[in-house]
Amino acid sequence: MTSKILYQQFFAGIRWNAIETIIFSLIFLTHQFFLFKTLGGALYGLVGTLFASLYLVVKVANFGLDKSLGTLFSDLSKDKNLFRSVITKQLRIQLAIFSVLSIIIFSIKLIDASIFKILSSVEYTMLAILLAILVVEGVKKTVRMLLQLAFLNKQAAFVELGVTTFYFIVVWGLYLLGYSLSLVTIFVPFLVFSVLSTACMMRYLHVWYQTLPEERNHEKAHKTPKTYFFKNRFFNTFNDLGSRIFTGNFLVVIAAYKFGMEYAAFIKLATSLFDTVSIVIYKTFGWTSYALFAHMKSEQLDHKKKAFSRAAHMMVQVLYGLLLFTCINYQKIATLKKVGNTEILTLCVLYAIGYLISIYEQFYVTQDSAGYLLIFNSLSLFLCGAVVYFGSTISTTELLLSFCVIRLIVLAAISIVSFYLWGIKSTWSVRPMPIIGSLTAALFFFAVV
């Protein structure tokens, strides 16, 4: 694949991921609004907890597989036999992992459901449906990542938006026909459409797989034993957990430990907006940048530097826009979220630093250098632990500022090491059009809200 075609696919991927993310978010928020109004607090809370628990398990039980695929994808996409051998094996492993987890969870329900309170809230039939969703979504997550790596973003977007729209229509169509909303009418259609979407994505992946060359690449075959994937999955799992220290859910836990539940609720409100923005940014720019770096793995260093420069430059423009929007509207956001102005600004900086670090992390993973990330994340863990343990009298603002300093230290370290290893660096030049767009959105929000 030539560089010109690769960059065309890269920009097309960003466009389709952006379209999917925006439309999906609108449908999702509309669905959640009507669910909240219709179900009431208790049942809505149970539905939300069940979905959150499912996707938490899906993400954790992935054990770094999706990120590890990027390290080999450039080689796999050049050899049909090698691709089939490696991917089939990894999907079988994932299927086995989620199947075993499902059996364990169901066994806990049979033995003593009080071990996990949420298990007491569902019947055996509903639990079986939820566990089926767990298995299907676990496999779907990896298939979806393979589509992203193959730059089949358009196909993935059509599938996701199609099944999401039909799911929305079916659930609320049943409600309008007189069926009451319940766990059954919410989760059974979700399972059906989850199976359909996974099947469609696997079909698209199979069609793309048929275009791969037949010739076996014996030279690269030695890189696919268990030890290779085990090492990469271990590094990526630990690094993913290390990065999550600075996400909303972990900050809420820290706040609860340090300051009590009232402050935990305060942090939860403050981080909710930035977590939503993070999803949009990661799905739009994160997946496509990761795919670009994966395809560049075996290219010359100059091509790798150019790819990183482009991806980082686009992320920097997004960060400029986010910072500009927040600086203009931080008081209004703070009022809406009922939190302090300083906390909103500090969180904006904390998340912005994290977005930039994520570009470096994706590059390291695709270059078989996740071991360096292990060092950086260990440094983060050590410094965060020191702040939490020794900072017994610090305020919420001081805690967030300390985390910002830690992230800046890590960003500086990873930037220096990256320049030493590959000569890559972020470009901080400003492009006028993104800034004008962000300024327009910020002023519109300021005038309307």
Q: Would you write up a description of this structure?
A:
The chain is an all-alpha fold and 449 residues long. The chain has 2 domains: 224 residues, no CATH class; 216 residues, no CATH class. It is 84% helix and 0% strand. The mean pLDDT is 84.
Strand-helix topology:
Blueprint: H1 3-39, H2 41-60, H3 65-76, H4 80-112, H5 124-149, H6 153-176, H7 183-209, H8 218-221, H9 226-243, H10 248-259, H11 261-295, H12 301-337, H13 341-366, H14 370-390, H15 396-422, H16 432-448
Properties at a glance:
84% helix, 16 helices, 449 residues, 0% strand, 2 domains, mainly alpha
**What proportion of the residues is helical, as a percent range?**
over 70%
What's the main sheet like?
Answer: none
Which parts are unreliable, with pLDDT below 50 for 5 consecutive residues or more? none
Q: Please state the oligomeric state of the protein chains shown.
A: single chain
- Strand and helix order: HHHHHHHHHHHHHHHH
| Global mean pLDDT | 84
**Distance between the terminal alpha carbons, to the nearest Å?**
48 Å
Strand content: under 5%
Our count of domains comes out at 2
Rg computed from alpha carbons, rounded to a whole number of angstroms: 23 Å
Number of helices: 16
Number of strands: 0
Structural class comes to mainly alpha
Given the C-alpha coordinates, what overall shape results?
A: globular
